[in-house]
């Protein structure tokens, strides 16, 4: 813990807490201060100024990052017959129906993204208390309840990130690795900002990529 604390303190050296940095400058500082022994994830957090307790202020969506996330996601698909075959051909790691439900109920959740065809949602609904808290429940709003399972699998594998506003009115997502070029990270962040902009209710604040308000540039795993 002491080593982690020292690393955090060191990463903040030279950063003025009263200054608003441009996105380009913030990314430069993040890359300069990356010190972990692994390829850290660059994460963006935006305070939207909304109250998610009100249904009309909920912000949720999905963003296809043009340069991917740098992570290898394991994708599970609930489908039968031809749709199951399509999911497998598209690269899904796990495909099933009742058997997959039993596996999950037994405590095995070996995937990072879950997709389902609409006809199997009554079956998947049994797993709400298990998948919901983990953010894995398929949802048509983010394209994970669909008949086009092949495209959904390709999107997930290709860098699609889901986002949802938290209790404090903040939405965040990993947008790449510190090993990415600054240009690649900029493209990903702009795509994320655009996606949040489209998903936000009227009155919510979304910063522009040319005037990034982050006062503490940072990277995390």
From TrEMBL:
Record Pfam families: Ribosomal_L1 (PF00687)
Keywords attached to this entry: Repressor, Ribonucleoprotein, Ribosomal protein, RNA-binding, rRNA-binding, Translation regulation, tRNA-binding
Signal peptide residues on this chain, from the entry's feature table: none
Keyword Ribonucleoprotein: yes
Listed SUPFAM superfamilies: Ribosomal protein L1
Protein family: Belongs to the universal ribosomal protein uL1 family.
GO CC, alphabetical: cytosolic large ribosomal subunit
NCBIfam families: rplA_bact (TIGR01169)
PROSITE patterns for the chain: RIBOSOMAL_L1
Description of how the protein assembles with itself and partners: Part of the 50S ribosomal subunit.
UniProt GO BP: regulation of translation; translation
Record's protein name: Large ribosomal subunit protein uL1
GO molecular function (one): structural constituent of ribosome
Function: Binds directly to 23S rRNA. The L1 stalk is quite mobile in the ribosome, and is involved in E site tRNA release. Protein L1 is also a translational repressor protein, it controls the translation of the L11 operon by binding to its mRNA.
Origin: domain of life: Bacteria
């Amino acid at each position: 813990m002491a080593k982690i604390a020292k690393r955090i303190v060191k990463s903040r050296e030279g950063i003025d807490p009263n200054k608003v940095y441009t996105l380009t400058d913030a990314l430069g500082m993040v890359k300069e201060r990356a010190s972990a022994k692994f390829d850290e994830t660059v994460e963006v957090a935006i305070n939207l100024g909304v109250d998610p307790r009100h249904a009309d202020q909920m912000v949720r969506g999905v963003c296809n990052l043009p340069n991917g996330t740098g992570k290898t996601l394991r994708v599970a698909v609930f489908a039968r017959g031809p749709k199951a075959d399509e999911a497998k051909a598209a690269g899904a790691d796990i495909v099933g129906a009742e058997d997959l439900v039993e596996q999950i109920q037994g405590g095995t959740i070996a995937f990072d993204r879950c997709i389902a065809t609409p006809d199997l949602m009554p079956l998947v609904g049994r797993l709400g208390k298990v998948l919901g808290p983990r953010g894995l429940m398929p949802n048509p709003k983010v394209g994970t309840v669909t008949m086009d399972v092949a495209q959904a699998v390709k999107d997930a594998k290709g860098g699609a990130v889901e986002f949802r506003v938290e209790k404090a009115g903040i939405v965040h997502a990993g947008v790449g690795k510190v090993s990415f070029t600054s240009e690649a990270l900029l493209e990903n962040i702009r795509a994320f900002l655009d996606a949040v902009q489209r998903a936000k209710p009227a009155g919510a604040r979304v910063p522009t990529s040319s005037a990034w308000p982050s006062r503490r540039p940072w990277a995390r795993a």
